[in-house]
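QA checklist item 7 of 12: single-chain prediction sanity check.
[x] sequence parsed
[x] length recorded as 618
[x] structure emitted
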Amino acid sequence: MKRKLLTFLACAYGLVSTAQSEFPMSVDVDWTATEVVVPPSPFQYQVLFVGATDMVQTGINEAVPAKQWHDFIGFTPITPEDCVDDANAIGWVSVNHEMIQANDKIGDGGGMTAFLLGRDPVDDSLYVIPQTLTDGRQGDFFNVDFSNVGETGMNCGGINSNIDGRIWTAEEWFRSDNNSLTVDFTTGGPGVRDLSDYTIKYTEFEMANFQTIQRYQNFNWMVEIDPRSAKAIRKQYNWGRQPFEGGTIANDNQTVYMGADATPGFFTKFVADTPGDFTIGTTYVYKHDNPGGDPWVEIDNQDFTKMLNFGTEAISSGATMFNRLEWVTIDKNTGKVYMTETGRDNPASRWEDEAMAGAVYAPHHLQRAMDQGATGPDDPAYWDYYGRILEFDPATGDVTIFVEGGPYFANSPDLASYPTKHLSNPDGLNMLYVNVGGTDKTYMLINEDLNGTSFGRTPDGISDRMCEMYILDMEIANPGIDDLIRLTQTPRGAEVTGACATIDGKSVLVNSQHPADTNPFPYNNSLTFAITGFDDPTALATLSSRDFDGETGRFSIYPNPTERIIYLSETTDLALYDITGKRIGVYRNVSSIDITGLATGTYLLKTKDGFTRKVIIK
């Protein structure tokens, strides 16, 4: 696969229907043209939830269009104690909205939507189940009410417990003063209108109760929500205030690991005194060179000032500095924790002051700086364009590189020279557990969020972000870029994020965030979609297929499991004709086209210079 300008579904972009002189309305079909065969996909694709289109219930007989910028997805499975009328219900989905917007009904700042999913027992497709909540709201999609915790600044990553499906949403973008709360992404006006001081009341945290803080200081906490009632439960004032992105719950249901999206970003953990009760316990920050071998340094979570200024406390404790820790997940089979370190191009100026104040660089950054010929991570020449996936082993206390991003290019190669696989700025991260024929398989789901298009993150001349989602078989020892398999890609301009598996392992839920508004509906909106079929041995077999020996030369076929893309070795104009020779579409300045929406049958592709291929879609 080559990363190229491509469509997401048929006609996603590049397709025009106006007459073009080099492409007549009809042609004689050249039956002698070389055939290329597009095999059917064993996976299903469904759009479940569309921002700014689907209505979220905000009150009794009140509904407004959902917010946009879908990010984190959480899945909370049905339990025997849940009272749900539909026997095919499988669980609740929670979707974050990173878009900041002032809204009288939804609430100011960020937001979140919850809905209940069912699975059709005949074809395994998913559907949204209408509900009536305890507060009287009725409908399909429900706005999560954060009013009882003082709203959220915005909602990015989060935590989805693999023990019981509990959900926390993260308020990532760090706020430094009240003015930083005021930008509405849609109007440019205030995104949070109430800037008065906030008094914390009636929480489980005595050290925080009746503390009066500035409004911005009530943002950037992990916030637990209940998807069943679509309401916030609490802000975790005992976990510290940070630009949280992701986190995970360990198998003991006591230990919480969290990452902060900042440079420097700190790796933290909370250990509950009692399993499942995360209101009482101890908070730590990671310090790899801590004397005595224990890499965890306690930060007193009974001191609210320290929790409010967690970053300052981490620096004074000599904590290890990372370059934008984003999502955090755990392999429940091994207990090992994985984090995406998204990277920042030239981080030197971002963490040199903290280093002088006592914080320490992660060992892999010191080594990378040495390999680059830089004097250290605080050298302006030090670069970190692509990021990586890190592994934390609780048994040893070590954080090491699991998969390094890349390969590195000082200058972006052109389309023809671009590598078949390239990992840039991994962000969303999760695990998929599948049982096929009695055999358990574990896969890692990796989502990109490109920091830019330079230095090989996209081919030369392509200015649109092309974020991809990869899957990795966790049985592979010492994995690298070549072991990644592309699963899907979002529409032009979008971030791919939120990858989250349903508890039965059949489906993966994914978000397309802030796509280009020039894409056709619904791909001009943030949306949540599902890929189903991971328990199908045929479908899984396609995931281990690295290449497809189709036609070589000017046209090639890559049978992506969830996309049906015809790739070209160069950017050109082309037309598509049906079996009768009638023109059904013209594509301008493309290097690939998506044929998902086309019926099975035979078609003819013709470029502007007359080069043809007969395409058989099965």
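[x] summary fact logged: The chain has five helices and 41 strands.
[ ] second reviewer sign-off
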